[in-house]
């Protein structure tokens, strides 16, 4: 059956990048803010929260800037700090399976609570797990 060119679904262009699909900077900011809010609120993320020091303000900005570029939007992080060098920048922190799993679970919960489209959420969850596992610098 042919698609009616005036239908709402055909009027919207397909998102070229995950950044566009998620909804641009306002939605990335909402995701990052919810991620760090959950870290502060949920006892299940206590180890993850403890690794971040007394304030989350700098971490919020850095993750927002990083995710914008990583998702295919503006490269705010790289313009400020150069190449992300994720593993090197995280070496000072003790990251094991528990921290990895808490980070991924917290981000997945934040994606669900901020309305990240399910297909994108699934793709991002896989990428986040791969990256978080790569960041581990201790076994347990």
Task: Tell me briefly what this model is.
With 140 residues, the chain is mainly alpha-helical. It has nine helices and no strands.
Descriptive report:
- The protein is globular.
- 66% of the residues lie in helices and 0% in strands.
- With 140 residues, the chain is mainly alpha-helical.
- The N and C termini lie far apart (55 Å).
- Helix 3 (24-41) packs across helix 8.
- The chain has nine helices and no strands.
- The chain has helices spanning 8-11, 18-22, 24-41, 46-50, 57-70, 76-81, 86-90, 97-113, 118-135.
- Keywords: Heme, Iron, Metal-binding, Transport.
- Its cofactor is heme.
- This is Hemoglobin.
- Belongs to the truncated hemoglobin family. Group II subfamily.
- InterPro entries: GlbO/GLB3-like (IPR044203), Globin-like_sf (IPR009050), Globin/Proto (IPR012292), Globin_bac-like_CS (IPR019795), Hemoglobin_trunc (IPR001486).
SSE order and pairing:
Layout: H1 8-11, H2 18-22, H3 24-41, H4 46-50, H5 57-70, H6 76-81, H7 86-90, H8 97-113, H9 118-135
Helix pairs in contact: 3-5, 3-8, 8-9
**Which word captures the global form?**
globular
CA-to-CA gap between the ends? 55 Å
Mean pLDDT: 89
SSE pattern = HHHHHHHHH
Number of helices: 9
The percent range for strand residues is: under 5%
Structural category = mainly alpha
Largest sheet: none
Q: Kindly provide the radius of gyration, computed on alpha-carbon positions and rounded to a whole number of angstroms.
A: 17 Å
- Fraction of residues in helix: 55-70%
Contiguous runs where pLDDT drops below 50 for at least 5 residues: 1-13
Record field, number of beta strands: 0
């Amino acid at each position: 059956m042919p698609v009616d060119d005036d239908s709402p679904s055909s009027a919207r262009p397909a998102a070229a990048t995950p950044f566009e699909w998620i909804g641009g900077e306002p939605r990335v900011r909402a995701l990052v803010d919810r991620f760090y809010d959950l870290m502060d609120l949920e006892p299940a993320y206590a180890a993850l929260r403890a690794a971040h020091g007394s304030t989350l303000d700098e971490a919020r900005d850095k993750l927002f800037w990083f995710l914008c570029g990583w998702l295919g939007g503006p490269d705010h992080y790289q313009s400020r700090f150069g190449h992300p060098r994720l593993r090197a920048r995280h070496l000072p922190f003790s990251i094991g399976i528990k921290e990895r799993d808490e980070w991924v679970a917290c981000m997945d919960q934040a994606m669900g609570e901020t309305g990240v489209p399910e297909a994108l959420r699934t793709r991002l969850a896989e990428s986040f797990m791969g990256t978080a596992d790569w960041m581990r610098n201790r076994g347990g």
